[in-house]
Amino acid sequence: MSAIKKLFLSEKYYFLVLPALSWQVLFFLIPLLFVGLMACFEHTSEQLFAYPTLENFRLVCTAPHFAIIFRSLWLAMSTALFALFAAYPIAYFLAFKVDRFRFFLLFLLAIPFLVNILVQVYAWFFVLDKQGMLSQAFMFIGLSKQPINFLDTLFGVRVVMLHIYLPFLVMPIFTALEKIDYRLVEASLDLGASFFATFTRVLMPLSMPGIKNGFFLVLVTSFGEYIIPILLGGNKVFFVGTIISEYFFIGKDWGKGTAFICISCLVLVIAVLIWNFIFNAVTMRSKRFVS
Amino acid sequence: MRSVTLKNVTKSYDSDLIFQGLNLQVPSGKFFALLGPSGCGKTTILRMIAGFETPDEGHIYLGNKEITHTPINQRSVHTVFQNYALFPHMNVFDNVAYSLRLKRVSPKIIEQKVIKTLKKFQLEPYMYKSVTQLSGGQQQRVAIARVVINEPDVLLLDEPLAALDLRLREKVLIELMELQDELKTTFIYVTHDQTEALTVADQMAIMNPNGQIEQVGTPKEIYEFPRSTFVAKFVGSTNIIKGHLQIQNGTHQLVVQGLPLIQLSQSSEALQMNHGDMIFISLRPEKIMISKRQLEGFSNHLQGIVISIVYHGRSTQYNVQLANGMLIQVFEQNEEHFPKDIIDYDDSVFLYWQKDNSVILVE
Q1: Calpha distance A146→A136 (Å, rounded)
Q2: Three-state DSSP state, A75
Q3: Per-residue pLDDT averaged across B217-232, rounded?
Q4: pTM
Q5: B87 in A contact zone (CB under 8 Å)
Q6: Which of residues 177 through 206 in chain A touch B, CB cutoff 8 A?
Q7: Which run of H or E residues covers position B141?
Q8: Homologous superfamily of domain range B4-230
Q9: Is ipTM beyond 0.90?
Q10: What strand order describes the sheet that includes B31-35?
């Protein structure tokens, strides 16, 4: 038996992760280390690494910078939470209440992925503009007398982010719910639970892996969101993404830029850990009925 | 413990009529079996009593109280599901404590009650194990413990033994009977297995594939006195003989072409029939005596040739062809190691039975 054949027939398939792992190491881990390293050095026009210093961090650790980081975090968390509340009923409906058109509806949900994000964002201009549909709808209902410009507002940014990120939450929750035997819901109701109790005691803990997956996917990606705030936020309010591009492409200050990346990453990791703790605590409580 | 009554219930899915004008009375505190072939709608009946389905027309009563439109979670009716539907994210204790915790019973009382229940079902050693680690039999005991702890008026069991192996089934059947005897809760047991139904039931109902209830009675009544060809064939094995009724000098006989007259008893069914009616009778294989010799003292005898023999262990099945080509099944107990009269293929034999042992089928 040849060595390669032996490798393929062996019980351990660890070698199968090699392509992905080497990709990750080469193009993610090493550059990330590089970013960390650059943050700890003074750069001059002659030398990329002149001498080690913590000066970059000192300059970045200021109130305005942290304000931007926390504004981004707040936007990311609220987007993820809103999307979670909006996505769960959709996923529930798709998993349990639809039979025949399930894949058609899932396809509809995936349609935005087929369209370039820039096209999607520009399409929103027609909705959010002063003469746009949303403004006209507000005037029609009588909520406002003058046309309202939703472009260049935080509200517009939120609406579009929710729209863009919603499918990222629906999919994992749908996958998690689909695996749940609906008879568990029936059994819970049968034992006297209300629908709400059935949700908190049975459905939610069992679909928690999907909830977590989707939530973190949205939290992490929307934290660094760049295009939507730039195009729809009117560049009036700054977010992490805009600051990074400012440092790298306009200011060409790589030292402060990398230091800022390090700090915002740290804040994001802490936020993720806190949310993970919250989700785990909620799951544990729902099992044991601690309230 | 309460009785369950279905009155004039009609149910259809899309345009598929499951049953129409169904009436069923389940006596209070009895072990009631609902027996029928797959797809006859017996599970739908269970789901309507539990509240998962609502009838299109008709009424369902729990005791004297109408529950047709009562929400599932407000019925004192609990279900043991076919696949048990245990909560996979909870351990045995949490599964059993589920309904009590919903009622906000104090944790101390919950613990006492759960441990008492777990002890009763010999589940105490597995208290903190995940339900997914248990064997099929243990899972099933958890499923029963989980509903019994809440002391429901009616317990619904939807083919609870389907996932267990044969030996375990027999054991669990006996345990279920003992449990029902102890709790006196009304049990409604749905199955397509006639042996299970005959074993456990105090009362049973037989459903045909069209969603109609053919007969209700004790297992003995159903087996010994089936009313219809469907019941006679579905519960146990039987020989159905078709012929014309002849009434002569107050005695009843069955006239079958090519066979001697078959004497019938004057049962209440026979008295409803008229001379010349076409009727069917059911004759259970074990009620027939088979012999190579001529015997006296039987009201009926037929002659035939053994065409096949199937050995079952405790009994032997003989398939006998009569003069008119009809096949008759006979079961004989294997009482002795070395029977004197060995019956073999192609032997000419006599079949004997008393007239009381055949039943006239009404439908």
Answers
A1: 9
A2: helix
A3: 95
A4: 0.85
A5: yes
A6: 181, 183-184, 186-194, 197, 201-202, 205-206
A7: helix B136-148
A8: P-loop containing nucleotide triphosphate hydrolases (3.40.50.300)
A9: no
A10: B77-80, B154-158, B186-191, B31-35, B203-207, B213-217
